[in-house]
Design a protein that fits this description.
The protein has three domains: 7-63 and 175-236 and 328-390, FAD/NAD(P)-binding domain, CATH 3.50.50; 67-83 and 113-171 and 238-324, D-Amino Acid Oxidase, subunit A, domain 2 (D-Amino Acid Oxidase, Chain A, domain 2, 2-Layer Sandwich), CATH 3.30.9.10; 408-478, Rieske [2Fe-2S] iron-sulphur domain (Rieske Iron-sulfur Protein, 3-layer Sandwich). The two termini are 29 Å apart. With 489 residues, the protein is an alpha+beta fold. Helix 1 (32-40) packs parallel to helix 7, helix 2 (75-82) crosses helix 3 and helix 3 (85-108) crosses helix 7. A hairpin with a 4-residue loop joins strand 21 (453-455) and strand 22 (460-462). 26% of the residues lie in helices and 31% in strands. The chain contains nine helices and 24 strands. Strands 3, 4, 5, 6, 11, 12, 13, 14 and 15 form a nine-stranded mixed β-sheet that branches. Strands 1, 2, 7, 8, 9, 10, 16 and 17 form an eight-stranded mixed β-sheet that branches. It is globular, with a radius of gyration of 22 Å. The structure holds flavin-adenine dinucleotide (FAD). Flavin-adenine dinucleotide binds at residues 28-34, 51-54, 58-61, 64-67, 195-196, 223-225, 228, 244, 246, 282, 319-321, 347, 349-353, 355, 479, 482.
């Protein structure tokens, strides 16, 4: 069962039960991007509300590794080849800006979030990946970054070549959010356990239908990790989902660095200190459309962790993030006709800097202030040829899993407690629990009608196309689906 190191820091934030039904700005989603947006709007004269379908910071932000770094795999050489040097340089500027912004807030508001400045590394453990590090080194140097090449990490770990930069950090994202919420809660209404279901337009306003009634608002800010609608924005056609597995365990002392390997199979390392010291190790990443035996991947990571660090895991969890097919996050107005419907998604596994940046960009759009990064992340940006190629690859993978889960629902790793039944021509997934009770759900994701796979790690039904997750009785626990599985869909 997933058990993240950060969960113990989550605090209940629930406020009024009676929801405000006529407001200026509705923020949907209480992860780092939603709370950062609310924080940036706290001193405006606008009437702002935030709704969260679960509890504040229980989404992806509670499952992250929490590095605040502009060294993000080989993003700068990748962005140069997908776009051009100027776009890559602007992305670097945006990440340094966001890193400084979070540091300023931590200092200004004395936020106790175990923030530690350290060095970031990207490293290779296979000879063929060395060349990619050289490419990243050259572009970072050209951009004025004081990057250094080395052939080892500060700890004993398989590595034949590495690049190091300074002025990066790690923190505890939940403690950071808890303080932001305390600062804003007298000015911004926060409602937990309220799920947005649909958004419609009426006389220039938006009507958001939620599980607690309808809300009329001028602006809607969708910070739900993955938007729960397809139009506007067409996010399913601009992104794919990448899942990773994470392990944490106590160590004698922390090391002041964080690192991520490059190449086909990436591993990420960081340390964390509260009363005890921990290592947080992530890896076994894959496109969710390409692998569905999640428990096996967790076991593989566990074997590696035990071998490399000679420790047993104390915390184990898995999580996915969204990657855009042009590698730039998607932040801003969803479409020309929906300029007051704003999105923040596809942080490509670098959502600490990008969530904080989203808060600034989205609030500047609402407050009609200039922001030099609006164009870079604009959801309506032009479709390049290379982006189209990535779109075709992603669409092929998603179509493949869509069809294969329709034709062959059974998987070799399913035990006898997972079955499929055809009732009146409709397919149902059946999970038989420890007490021999049958839990039957329609095997169809309400989001885009993909078939579901059973996740033994968390005992959930998961959508391998876009990442929605449901409990064994079909109640939605993670979007993009905003609906539970209907029994008779
Ligand atoms: C393994 C892994 C490691 C990572 N490590 C790092 C790292 O070291 N550094 C880094 O920069 N990034 C990292 N990331 C990425 C980062 O964690 C995420 O991009 C970021 O947390 C996303 O924040 P968010 O606010 O957009 O989403 P979330 O935290 O998921 O917040 C969205 C919220 O919206 C709510 N919601 C959803 N639907 C609805 C609805 N219909 N109505 C109301 N509420 C709704 C959810 O319950 C949730 O609380 C990592 C990602 C992965 C997968």
């Amino acid at each position: 069962m997933s058990n993240s190191i950060w969960k113990k820091y989550i605090t209940k934030q629930i406020q009024d039960k009676k929801i405000n039904d006529n407001i200026d700005v509705l923020i949907i989603g209480g992860g780092l991007s939603g709370i950062s947006t609310a924080f940036e709007l706290k001193d405006s004269n606008l009437n702002v509300c935030l709704i969260e379908s679960n509890e504040i910071s229980t989404g992806t932000t509670s499952l992250t590794t929490g590095k605040i770094t502009y060294l993000q795999d080989t993003i700068y050489s990748d962005l140069e080849s997908l776009h051009d040097f100027d776009i890559s340089k602007k992305y670097l500027k945006s990440q340094i800006y966001a890193s400084k912004l979070v540091k300023n807030y931590i200092e200004k508001y004395k936020i106790d979030c175990d923030y530690i400045e350290n060095d970031s590394y990207i490293f290779s453990y296979k000879h063929e990946d060395k060349i990619k590090i050289d490419k990243e080194y050259n572009i970072l140097k050209k951009m004025g970054i004081n990057a250094k090449i080395t052939n080892k990490l500060p700890i004993k770990f398989p590595c034949n070549y590495a690049l190091k930069v300074e002025d990066t950090a790690v923190f505890n994202p939940i403690k950071y959010i808890n303080t932001l919420v305390n600062i804003i809660k007298d000015k911004i209404k926060i409602y937990e356990h309220v799920r947005a279901l649909t958004i419609t337009k009426e006389n220039g306003n938006y009507i958001v239908d939620t599980t607690s009634g309808k809300i009329k608002t001028k602006y809607v800010v969708v910070c739900t990790h993955y938007p729960f609608f397809i139009i506007p924005g067409l996010i399913p056609f601009k992104t794919h989902i990448e899942k990773s597995h994470v392990i944490a365990s106590k160590v004698d002392k922390i090391e002041k660095f964080n690192a991520i390997s490059i190449g086909k199979q990436t591993y990420s390392i960081r340390y964390y200190k509260d009363n005890d010291s921990y290592i947080i190790f992530a890896g076994e990443s894959y496109k969710m459309s390409n692998h569905v035996n999640y428990q096996q991947r967790q076991e593989e990571l566990k074997i590696k962790f035990e071998k490399l660090f000679n420790k047993k895991p104390e915390y184990e969890w898995s999580i996915h993030d969204i990657t855009s097919n042009d590698l730039l996050p998607i932040i801003g107005s969803a479409s020309n006709s929906d300029s007051n419907l704003l999105l923040a998604t596809a942080f490509n596994k670098w959502g600490m800097t990008n969530s904080i940046l989203s808060g600034k960009i989205l609030s500047d759009i609402i407050l009609k202030k200039d922001n030099e990064f609006i164009d870079l992340f604009n959801p309506k940006r032009e479709i390049t040829i290379k982006r189209t190629i990535n779109f075709l690859v992603d669409s092929f993978n998603i179509s493949k899993i869509y069809i294969s889960t329709k034709i062959n629902k059974n998987r070799s790793f399913y035990n006898s407690n997972v079955k499929f039944e055809n009732i009146d021509g409709k397919n149902y997934g059946v999970y038989i629990d420890e007490n021999n009770k049958k839990h039957i759900v329609r095997n169809l994701c309400p989001h885009m009608k993909c078939s579901l796979v059973f996740n033994y790690m968390d005992k959930t039904w998961d959508c391998p196309c876009h990442g929605s997750r449901f409990d064994i009785d079909g109640n939605v626990i993670k979007g993009p689906s905003s609906f539970d599985i209907k029994k008779n869909d």
